[in-house]
Amino acid sequence: MRKILLLLLMFGLVVLSSGVFAENVTITTYYPAPYGGYEELRAKKLGIGNTWFDSAAFPIADPADLIVEGSVSIGTTDPEAATLRVWNTTPYDGGMSPVGQDSIILRGAVQNALGNYYGGITWFGSGGRRRAGIASVMEHADSDHVGLAFFTQGTDGVGPMFESVRISYEGRVGIGTNTPRYMLDVASWPRFGSGGDGGRIFVDYGVAPKPSAPILKLSDKDDPPRIQFQQYNTGTEVAPDYSSWIGMAGGKSTNLAIMGGNLGIGTTTPGTNRLEVVGGPIKATDGLIIQTVGSAAAEAALAKPDGRLWLRTDL
């Protein structure tokens, strides 16, 4: 009997208190709680990391939608100290369709947008200034004609970037020009090397390592400076089997020399003649002297300013 009276008393107190006191209770649930995997996760804005965990102290301002403190790994759990690492073991190829071989895809081909740049990657400098970048460039109304444009700022301080190098959709490279007409088109004076062998230019044809076709060598290291043509089969690049050159007659000279063998004008077979001219006469306005003398007196005797040809047979 006492137990029944006690229960009735407690029930009455609960009913009475419910009419006098009011309390709001908020229950927060997590699914999974508080960690676990989600089949699908959606968010208007997302901050990751200890710094961005407090949304009240660090709100995500427009236009950012995702802020990450630390590194991001895609396809791997090991970022290897990189800010962004994309892991892809599918071999890369030149196929038209993406089938998993691309680690990053940028939208950069637009129809009827000749001259426009798309899909850019930009490097920022101090003050948030854009200082260098790479972008695709439309070279035709056809969206298949896509080149690559490389930008640099070019000057110090405030100012825009400018295109400095272009690789056209045809594979031509332009330096200082965005309309390369040749495989390499340089708009200004190029410099090759800073001295030594670095200043040489070799234009090589044939099969390496011993091409048998001609090599054109422009050199400022050789003495005298010259343009040299050479072939080698059993020889070497520095000791060719055959070579001839045209260049300065000596160091610090304004005279011109042709060396390497007999000279043919109008013929490729001068034979044993030191000079053989085929197809026309030789004109010498101030006279032509042929001499084999070895003394100043003999040379003075031949140096007649009358336009005649002197032949010495008494030497």
What does this structure look like?
4% of the residues are buried. The mean pLDDT is 78. 8% of the residues lie in helices and 25% in strands. The strands form 5 sheets. The protein has a 6-stranded mixed β-sheet, with no helix packed on it. A 5-stranded antiparallel β-sheet has the order 11-12-13-14-15, with no helix packed on it. Strands 1-2 form a two-stranded parallel sheet. It has helices at residues 2-20, 296-302; strands at residues 46-48, 66-68, 72-74, 84-86, 117-124, 130-138, 146-152, 162-167, 173-175, 184-186, 201-204, 215-219, 226-231, 242-248, 256-259, 263-265, 275-277. It is built from 2 helices and 17 strands.
Describe the secondary structure blueprint for this structure.
Elements: H1 2-20, E1 46-48, E2 66-68, E3 72-74, E4 84-86, E5 117-124, E6 130-138, E7 146-152, E8 162-167, E9 173-175, E10 184-186, E11 201-204, E12 215-219, E13 226-231, E14 242-248, E15 256-259, E16 263-265, E17 275-277, H2 296-302
Parallel strand pairs: 1-2, 3-4, 9-10, 16-17
Antiparallel strand pairs: 5-6, 6-7, 7-8, 8-9, 11-12, 12-13, 13-14, 14-15
